[in-house]
Amino acid sequence: MDIFLITLGTILVIIGIIGSIVPIVPGPPITFSGLLLVHFTSEQPFTVEFLIIFGVLAVLSSFIDNVLPIYATKKFNGSKKGVWGSAIGLLIGLFFFPPFGIIVGPMLGAYVGEIIDGKTTDKAFKPALGSLIGFLTSIFLRLILSIVMAYFFFMEVIL
């Protein structure tokens, strides 16, 4: 049974790392699932505290992934309409044009929101760029978290 759990856990960790880069796949929660499977082997290598910390981080990463582009839009001098446009663009991109809509949707939504707010195309581009930077930052954070969890996973499996 241990070999089955380790094999399935390895597959989930690899999918989780890939999912950290692919917008629609929740990478860190999938990687965390691999950690959980290894924990249920006969050796139980992780403490409950360890699993709780990484479980919370995996859930938090999913939340941050959706909020960071909107937050970055605001930080790059986006108006309320630009922030709303980013949020609406995220939802439209998520449901109608996955996976690329998740990348482009918030950026286009912020841009359109800023244009509606009366900004020139040059001034509307800055908050839209902020949305893209927020999205790329969220990918980077997800990837780092998944790699850290993968490290602990493979250290326990190999050693």
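The record above closes out task 2.4. Task 2.5 opens with a second protein, given below.
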Amino acid sequence: METTVLVVDDSPTELRAMQAALKGRGYTVVTAVDGEQALEKAMQFKPRVMLLDIVLPKKNGFQVCRQLKTTPQTQDIKIVLVSSKTQDSDRFWGMKQGADEYITKPYDAAELAASVERFL
């Protein structure tokens, strides 16, 4: 079965790195570059897992996470926040918004893939 992963980051470099880490493992990767696009693509593609940056244009990752987790059609999407925010308070707040996991940048490709695989 094909597994879709939605990757959301406003940095083209980060998007490419995350795509590369996942495509080699056979996932279908869909990307978004801001919070509003992330919400649209989550509704459209219904990914199993979403890798979500926190600092985004239009809506931040915390807002996107909270909205997806409180919407019946998207509440089952597993959300992994991937952020350069390394404070315990950021991690705490992210989990409080409904995130399933929190990874800090820089991460390694194997860590990212293992995180996705945990939720499949």
